[in-house]
């Protein structure tokens, strides 16, 4: 749906100059839009717009609220990233601005009992495709079509993950999707807390195939921004981006990144200062040093660090902790 917050000219300018995806004269007119163009925009979005909790975790949960649409536009145009509401609403505006037929969906992710994740569905060339610029690895290489034959989609490879969807019909006749992922060979994260079955872990545990307005999405998602029980990630340090389609992720105090052959490399930090410098190295263009330091301090204050990990000296002494 077109947005009053991001004009067609702003969307096209961002796609061509910030995402570096050229648009033909026909595409600028919203004509001859293709799955190929949709994939190029989504791939570039994962390269240049991070998923990041850095600006959220320093704020106590009871003081948090769903971002305003003005804030979503600001963070989007400046490629600051954010949580799924910011990233997927901004992605939605970009796609709608070019002329794609795009709507919002909502889902429960990583085993949650609550709706805690926004995503998009795009209809192009007579078929529906997921476009998720949030925490889930669904559009780095191959867009996933929802109009697959049978009840299980073909397996697609996205960075170091394999992904599949399953189609279900509820007792009242509503179509639902679930999604699973598994790591490619030699990349699995030990002691992953999400239930795993035959190598597959829960990605989406419920996606109603029901298009939502932005107002409805906002109402459903607002509790997730304030309650860490609904969305535990809001109290954790988590940054994710895919330069050249390859994973770079800060998860807590650890860096994970993808090397040749879809191999996962792990770098564990031993101190707050080491973590700050690692974040600045990989995500410094998206956040100032002050933002990074506040986020690391908040993460440590939440008790999300390993034994023996050296905090900032002032926190170790109980000051500003």
UniProtKB/TrEMBL annotation:
Cite a single Pfam family from the UniProt record. Acetyltransf_2
User: Which Gene3D superfamilies does the UniProt record give?
Assistant: 3.30.2140.20
Single GO molecular function: arylamine N-acetyltransferase activity
The EC number(s) attached to this protein equal: 2.3.1.5
Entry coiled-coil feature ranges: none
What domain of life does the native source organism fall in?
A: Eukaryota
**Which top class of enzyme applies to this chain?**
transferase
InterPro entries, alphabetized = Arylamine_N-AcTrfase (IPR001447), Arylamine_NAT_domain_sf (IPR053710), Papain-like_cys_pep_sf (IPR038765)
Family of this protein: Belongs to the arylamine N-acetyltransferase family.
Record protein name field: arylamine N-acetyltransferase
**Which species is this record about?**
Hypsibius exemplaris
